C-alpha cells in the first residue's frame, strides 16, 4: 500500500468559553464541538525522494513546512522513530480558511490518520491525539469527531450523544476573515462578562432539544471580536428561521441551526450571493476517516 486518502471533516463550536490562561500562554477552554459533513480530502503517498512535499490547488494554502499537515507528519515520524522514506501530501480543499471551521486542523488530523495506516504504526486515536496536540489545539478533535465536550486546550474529551437526524446547519463564510490570534487578543483585552452555560448546553444535547440548544449557544470570542458583519449574518439567519446562530471558533464563519432541511435551504438561498462561500451541512458521528476514493 503506497497511498491513502482520508476524509477530513470541518468542525463547529456549539459553545466556546475561555476559563483561564496557562503559564505557557495557551487559553483554557470549555467547548462543545461538532463534526460536520463539509470535508477536505488528504491523500498521502509514499515515494523514494527522502523528502516531504505538499500539493494543493488553492492559493491560500502554504506548500512548505508551515503547513500544519507537514508539522503533523514531522511529529508522527519523531514520535514513532520511523524514517521518512519520502511522502507527498496532496490536499483537496473544500473548507474555507480563516473561518473557525478547523480546515488546517482537519488536514493535520487526516495526515496523522493516513500515516498511521500507511506505515502500519498501530497507534490508537488517543495516541494520535497525543501527537497532535502540540501541532494545533483543534487537531485532536478533528481526529475524534462526533459531538464532544472539549476541555483543557481542546484535548480533554467527553463524548456526547449524536444530534437528532433532523438537525441541519447553514455555514456562511463572509468575505472578511478573522485570524485566531486576533480573536484571542480581543478576548484578553475585553474579557466579556457573559459566559455560556456549557453544562446546560450538554443537558440540552442529551435531551435532544434542538430549540433550547439554539437559544443557549454562545461563543465568548464572538462577543469579544464584535464584528458587525457577523451580527448581520446572524440576524439574517434568525429571520430565515434558524433556531440559533453563532460565529464558530475564532471566526469569521457564522452558522445557523435548523430543524428542517427546507428551512435551512431557504436560508442558504437567501444568503448565498453575499458570501465568499456557503454550505448546507449535517452533523457527522466521526472525525478524520480513511476512504476508498474522493
Largest sheet: 8 strands, mixed
| Percentage of residues assigned to helices | 25-40%
Task: Output mean pLDDT.
Answer: 95
Strand percentage lies at 25-35%
Distance between the termini: 17 Å
Task: Report the C-alpha radius of gyration, rounded.
Answer: 19 Å
Query: How many helical elements?
Result: 10
Task: Describe, in plain words, how this protein is organized in 3D.
- The structure is a single chain.
- The strands form two sheets. Strands 1, 2, 3, 4, 5, 6, 8 and 12 form an eight-stranded mixed β-sheet that branches. Strands 9-10-7-11 form a four-stranded antiparallel β-sheet, sandwiched between helices.
- Helix 1 (68-80) runs parallel beside helix 2.
- It is α+β, with helices and mostly antiparallel strands and 294 residues long.
- The model has no long low-confidence stretch (mean pLDDT 95).
- The chain starts with a strand and ends with a strand.
- 34% of the residues lie in helices and 29% in strands.
- The protein contains ten helices and twelve strands.
- The chain folds into two domains: 3-160 and 285-291, Ribosomal Protein S5, domain 2 (2-Layer Sandwich), CATH 3.30.230.10; 168-281, Alpha-Beta Plaits (2-Layer Sandwich), CATH 3.30.70.890.
Q: How would the blueprint of this fold be written?
A:
Blueprint: E1 3-21, E2 27-46, E3 52-56, H1 68-80, E4 87-92, H2 103-118, H3 125-132, H4 139-144, E5 147-152, E6 156-159, E7 168-173, H5 180-190, H6 198-207, H7 210-216, E8 218-219, H8 220-225, H9 228-239, E9 244-247, E10 254-258, H10 261-271, E11 277-281, E12 289-291
Parallel strand pairs: 1-8, 3-4
Antiparallel strand pairs: 1-2, 1-12, 2-4, 2-5, 5-6, 7-10, 7-11, 9-10
Helix pairs in contact: 1-2, 6-7
